[in-house]
Amino acid sequence: MKSAVRVQERSGAWRQLSLAEAIAEASRHLERGDDAHALKLLEKTVQHAPRIPVVRYLLGVAQVRQKRFEPAISNLEKAVHADERNADYQLSLGEALMAEHPLEAIPHLARCVELGSKRPEAYSKLATLLADDQKPEQALSICDLGLTACGEHPGILASRGVVLTLLDRSAEALECLRKAEALRPHDHWTMVVTAGILLDLGRVPEARHYMERACALEPGNAEAHFNLALTQLLAGDYREGFREYEWRWGMRKVAGRPIFPQPVWDGAELAGRRILLHTEQGAGDTIQFVRYLNFVKARGGHAILPTPKPLVRLMGWLGGCEIAPVDLPLPAFDVQCHLLSLPRLAATDKDTIPPPAAFVIPPEMKQKWSGILGEKTGLRVGIVWAGTAAHKNDRKRSMACRRFAPLLECPGVQLFSLQVGPAVAQLAEAAVQSKVRDLAPHLTDYAETAAAISQLDLVITVDTSVAHLAGSLGAPVWMLTPFAPDWRWLLEREDSPWYPTMRLFRQPVAGDWDSVMKSVEHELRRLLSAAPASAPLPNECVRMAADFIPAGASVLDLGAGSSALEHYLPTGSRYTRFDVVQNSEQPIPRPAGVTHVTALGVLELVPDWRKVLKQLRAFGLPVILSYCAHEGLQELCRVFAEAGFHLQSSLRTDDNRVLLRIVPGETRLPLRRRVLVMSCDNSGNFADRLGFHAINSMMPAGAEVHHGCLDPWDVPPGDFDLLILGTGNSVGQQILTDQVLELVRRVPRSVGIFGTEYREGIDRARMTELVDRLTIWFARYEEDLLLYGAGRQNAVHLGDWTIGAFPMTRWNRDETLRAGWECWKNLPLDGAIRKIQKYRTVVAEGIEPLLCALTSADRVAYTEQRDASGKHSGKYRSLLIDIFGRTWPESNLFEFPREAVAAYRARTMRVMSEMPLVFNQLLESQENKCSGA
Q: Are the C-beta atoms of 427 and 433 separated by less than 8 Å?
């Protein structure tokens, strides 16, 4: 070889290398990992010897290491063409193709194996590709051939474990991985594969341990982090799981994020900017995660949703976002984000999952599908048995249509197929032929499927996009779940935090669909045979139900038969009745001003009581109901959750019947110079002392605060920009004086922070004028609002804000404390709180000691506050209804749900957190007014 390669040294000097010397030197660079110098030398060498296969081979290897795959493939193809019997050439070409064109790599890796290569990576990589190509039997043969050629190599053993998993031989797979781990204890890929097998076996904590080890060994490995995310999400650890889920973009098998110059959104306020929300993965993921559009809108964003054609019409029913069909040019946008990244930005956990997206189906679509389905002769049930065959987990999640055959034997069932795609052909099988109505010809997109579901009573489906669609529509959906479920279905539970109307039927062991379908058949027959109860509602139950209703309520009674409830309602209540049983086909009216709904003895009698609950949820009001709880309270709570309610309080009236108060979730949104705070004299009790400090802490830093006294009357001189009336106390008639009303008239902005007591003696006209003149009233009790703030936009339910001074804690003395005024007489305030919170049982002689005890004790009782004539203050009843939705008799020890106290504390403190902003805005508005702004 006469050709020579001229190479410049680092010193700047030049030297001549023969072709053989250049090849040898480049090989040494590659062996040392000095890929950059090898590449530079080989690029010169190939100019002198373009037809020498070893030069093309080495150049291709160097380019692969630099991730320059396309030129690497070109060079390696030339090397293989020149010497196709060289196993190393075939292997390197296969490795280069795996990065860009994985299926094209298979024949080259196979040829490498045929040539008898002793390189273990040839066997492990070929087996991986064959497994990805859904050829697990061939992949297993390659692994066995590799173990014969190379001995028990950990890479081949790990690949064999993966393949055995695909063949549902998980126990053997785990044995292979244990051997691989013993041979190479610190190999991250072996740990990732082992974790995947443990997940298939349902051993989630072990799987998570292996994933964490893999991430520790290779902190930058995307596959390890992504698989750790799946174990965290499956275990319900959403905060950490969604954070780790962002590693998906580094996965070889996950499509990369679209490349646009606009920045990726970090969750900050958008202030009207346009945000592109990329859909990703399947249609089910899009349907599941568009619920986060409200999160984007709450940040002030204008959402743009690129949408594939089958979803365009459905997504158009959402409203509040701009739909961009993917086959059209994208509109302009400012920032971008992926739908499945939104849960992380929203700091989602199991308790803060937003409700499903609300797809509003046009009435004409419902009418169209009512006609398509025809006459209803039984329970309409839609079924889906198979997902997309290309899905990596499809062999586990899909089943054969014939498995639904037992449901055809259930009397009173009409089965409709919502299946689309090639699996529809299974309807021709004898077991279901002509017995299941095929809707596929009409299901041209997801909008049609949604409209069809709206006319069904139940959907039974495997884990497909139809499950997400039915769940989002609020339709009852039974999902048939494989033993190793997708992360979003969690473990063991029958319900889903993502869809209130979903029920999960899980395989007890891998592949056992027979047990699943037996459970489904049993539950379907039970559903069909359920008979309504008709026992009369006892008056004692009605009387007890009145204890769940606060004074001043306006009650809509849906009960059938007697109107006995009207006679037991508390003072100031109003009563309206609508017999929902006799008028089950009519929509429930909502009279003006109604604040509470009662449904005593109703749910057992109406044909579709879930429909009734759905109507009531639209009212957004508390509902007091009774029910013969044959299914137990847990089952009832699941049904209420499906309808959008949660249980606030319950009371069993006898062996069969339970009284319940259910409430919808609600979010309250809140609506600086010289400030006057008027309250009662600081007498040293909890309320006065805590209120004094609380109000001062909420004032803007630049506000000048002056304190006055209501009784005895004492007002500092001068004019004021803002009046704060009360510091959380309860006021009676002696406070409602002409002086108070005149002061409220005189100060341009006023905020009330008080409740009421001894209400029978309050001059209603004075109280009405006072509330009318307040800019905003933070009412202490729900009953305050009902009696004096109903219908007013300036009234907000604060709660007793002293709860913020009492931490949720636990008693440590199993004794009883009588907590009267002496508790704080000789103690500092914090000492009095600590003293009360030490005792398991507390008898409270003041409202604040009672509230303090509720944060720590197991049992409490209270002694009502009375005036000179013996009348009750009413404050204790008000407080207990606020917290628990019901009252208990005076002086009787009662146990209570601590989580209800924590929820009340959170609600109250949430409103308190908004009060500084209110004060600030009122003072700013007054400042702007005075300056002429």
A: yes
Q: What is the pLDDT of residues 286-341, one digit of tens each?
A: 999 999 998 999 899 999 999 999 999 999 998 779 999 988 899 999 999 999 99
Token pair listed for 309? 């054609």
Q: For tokens 């692994």, what's the residue? A: 143
Distance between CA atoms of residues 566 and 562, nearest Å: 10
Name the pLDDT band for 672 (thresholds 50, 70, 90). Answer: low
Contact 101, 129 (CB under 8 A): no
Long-range contact list for 791-799, CB < 8 A, 24+ apart?
791/593, 794/671, 795/771, 796/668, 796/670, 796/671, 796/911, 797/668, 797/882, 797/911, 798/728, 798/753, 798/908, 798/911, 798/912, 799/882, 799/904, 799/907, 799/908, 799/911
Which amino acid, one-letter code, is at 603? Answer: L
CATH domain 674-802 topology: Rossmann fold (3.40.50)
Question: Helices (DSSP H) in 201-290: which residue ranges?
Answer: 204-217, 222-234, 238-245, 283-289
Residues 6+ apart with CB under 8 A from 495: 502, 503, 504, 638, 641
Q: Which amino acid is at 621?
A: L
Q: Take residue 710 and report the two structure tokens written for it.
A: 């209501």
Structural contact between residues 139 and 167, judged by C-beta atoms closer than 8 angstroms: no
- pLDDT, one tens digit per residue, over 675-729 is 999 887 655 566 677 788 888 888 887 788 999 888 888 899 888 999 999 887 7
Helix, coil or strand: residue 429: coil
Fold of 20-212: 1.25.40
**In 3D, which of 805, 798, 795 has the Cα closest to residue 908?**
798
What confidence tens digit (pLDDT) does each residue in 202-223 have? 788 888 888 888 888 888 888 8
Residue of 882, 705, 719, 885 whose CA lies nearest to 803: 882
**CB of 57 closer than 8 Å to CB of 92:** yes
Could you give phi then psi for residue 285, rounded to 5 degrees? -65, -40
Among 796, 789, 791, smallest CA distance to 918 is for 796
Are 17 and 42 contacting, i.e. CB atoms less than 8 angstroms apart?
Answer: no
Choose the CATH number for 539-664 among 3.40.50.150, 3.40.50.720, 3.40.50.300, 3.40.50.1000: 3.40.50.150
- Among 230, 158, 179, smallest CA distance to 200 is for 230
Q: Is the preceding omega at residue 712 within 30 degrees of 0, hence cis?
A: yes
Strands (E), 681-822: 704-709, 722-725, 730-731, 749-756, 776-779, 795-797, 813-819
Q: For residues 245 and 229, is the Cβ–Cβ distance under 8 A?
A: yes
Beta strand 894-895 with 859-862: parallel, antiparallel or unpaired? Answer: antiparallel
CATH number of 363-529, picked from 3.40.50.2000, 3.65.10.10, 3.20.20.80, 3.40.47.10:
3.40.50.2000
Name, in order, each residue with C-beta under 8 angstroms of 567's C-beta and a sequence gap of 6 or more: none
Domain ranges in the chain are 20-212, 363-529, 539-664, 674-802, 803-909
Both tokens of residue 176? 């292979």
